[in-house]
């Protein structure tokens, strides 16, 4: 029996444009795809509930006979190698700090025992160590990074989906990974919102390019409009590669793709930042923010998490997140600003909640995004940029359609008042059957007061 190549799958659950799979198939040997759920290695950053739901369905839809195991990765790899006689292990590189350390140790241990190990790109378009400043250091500002990123694109060609693959007939049993919620089953909204498969990712990309790309630059900030691709969870789990996306964009006119290309580059930049700043999920990259007087306010944190702040666009975003596992990017900025500046609650609390509830909970994107909105990270928004949630709602959800969808108790309010029910006349609230403090909460903070408090804390932090 020919010894198989073990293809250790992680966040690369696809068959198309998969360098590690392509190399394994090209060898002519049988291929044994293996997925290991190793929560202990990831520690605090183990996949959250929504991402686990997505992972289950991604594995179910994957067009490979995947051996599924749970436990310590090194131990399970040893067991599989021993049982099958495999002498080669391939995988796609990861860039999270815990993953880099684990992969390096496993690679060294296997090589010391005569096992061939090869790792491949595929998570990002350009690897985090592949783009550098002229002095050799990493970038800390997106715009010059993007210029170099864009100049290196060239004409992209994707690897084909392999056919006539020899899958290993290993005879090993699968573990029950228990990825779906059962008591209670809270995933009904996720099931209604997503079809999880490699095919669904390709169809979503085609639909975006054909129907929304032309207006993406102007529509992407309006959460009630289907103006964004919603490809982020597919990218996170590797059901589609960034190269597949950019190659598809290269089939249309350049000027139409610029705004969306920037978003793909931002994703690469996040991986670049995490790779070169491995403490980014834990520690403010602008050191002064570690001394910022963050507030420990469990009651208001819970109100924010549950969409009960009394600010309709914030509440709509938090409820969209809970119901669908997703939140529109503009609203991510608004809800993040509200938590860190209106409530002055540490960005790590927001990061942890998003990590558990997002189906696209990518550690690099998530931690960079939270530090950006808090003002504490690389290329961050200035701290004094404090979004007014009422004004932002009126600007980006002018008719209130987004709020009406996710905060239905406000659905009968006219657009003039839907983003500021606390200011609405009593007769308007009566006709809309809105009872402040009962059917819908009163604002948990006064925005102007909270803004001044946050700015004063920031000035004091700088002065010290």
Summarize the structure.
The protein has 464 residues and is mainly alpha-helical. It has helices at 19-26, 39-42, 49-61, 73-84, 97-112, 142-151, 188-193, 198-211, 216-219, 232-237, 242-249, 254-276, 298-305, 312-324, 329-342, 347-357, 363-374, 389-396, 401-406, 426-431, 447-463, and strands spanning 5-9, 31-37, 67-70, 88-92, 116-120.
Descriptive tags:
single chain; 464 residues; mainly alpha; Serine Threonine Protein Phosphatase 5, Tetratricopeptide repeat; DNA Cyclobutane Dipyrimidine Photolyase, subunit A, domain 3; five-stranded parallel beta sheet
Report on the structure:
This protein is mostly helical. It folds into three domains: 5-123, Rossmann fold, CATH 3.40.50.620; 124-157 and 196-276, Serine Threonine Protein Phosphatase 5, Tetratricopeptide repeat; 287-463, Orthogonal Bundle (DNA Cyclobutane Dipyrimidine Photolyase, subunit A, domain 3). Helix content is 47%, strand content 6%. It has helices spanning 19-26, 39-42, 49-61, 73-84, 97-112, 142-151, 188-193, 198-211, 216-219, 232-237, 242-249, 254-276, 298-305, 312-324, 329-342, 347-357, 363-374, 389-396, 401-406, 426-431, 447-463, and strands at residues 5-9, 31-37, 67-70, 88-92, 116-120. A five-stranded parallel beta sheet has the order 3-2-1-4-5, with helices on both faces. Helix 1 links the parallel strand 1 (5-9) and strand 2. Helix 12 packs across helix 17 (363-374). It is globular, with a radius of gyration of 24 Å. The chain starts with a strand and ends with a helix. The model has no long low-confidence stretch (mean pLDDT 96).
